Here is the input.
Amino acid sequence: MSTVLFVKANDRPAEESVSVKMYEAFLKHYKETHAEDTVVEVHLHEQELPLLGWDMIQANYKSATGKELSGKEKQIRSIVEKHLEQFTSADKIVMAFPLWNLTVPSVLHAYLDLMHLPGKTFRYTEAGPVGLLSDKRAVLLNARGGVYGEDSPFEMAVHFVKRHLNFFGITNISTVVIEGHHQFPDQGASIIEEGMRKVVMEAKRF
Ligand SMILES: Cc1cc2nc3c(=O)[nH]c(=O)nc-3n(C[C@H](O)[C@H](O)[C@H](O)COP(=O)(O)O)c2cc1C
Here is the structure.
């Protein structure tokens, strides 16, 4: 029995959004085929996600060194700990996000910032930082209107999330990308249909 964390970084309605359709289809088929697993959902636009800055840096530093936190720092730290606990206790992680302005929605960036805590998700060594979460698996579900392919330097969403997860030691990552449905509107429906088939297959396999 596994615990699976589902992270949704898009608050558009499913009928308007390809990545939300991917999220919902994955969730439905995953639950159908993994009835014994525990599913935890986090919808990032519904969360209070503090932005990384002085208060959070101080909150984390003071927590790590046993110093007294201010009221605001305690509040930030409790949010950090809640998300960190969910993230580190999951066996598998599913993240669904669109490509917006060449990168991830800012809520996903803010969320990943919460996870960068030495001793929790990585540790420093003489050879450089080493990830601590190498036992986890992840799947990334991404939709992007244009065609970028695997290696475009302008695609800073899938690459961005993968590098963060790699930094935490997570290397067992599969991706399903639906792309080009805006660039080629006449083929849009078939691009999405074909992509959704891959989402369902991946949900059953994951
Ligand atoms: C605010 C915004 C920014 C976007 N930026 C890009 C972009 O940089 N590159 C691109 O190919 N498509 C871009 N798109 C199109 C989305 O990638 C496309 O709608 C895709 O399906 C993901 O969004 P969705 O999951 O909500 O459908 C953008 C769409 C919106 C609404």
Remarks:
- DSSP finds six helices and seven strands in the chain.
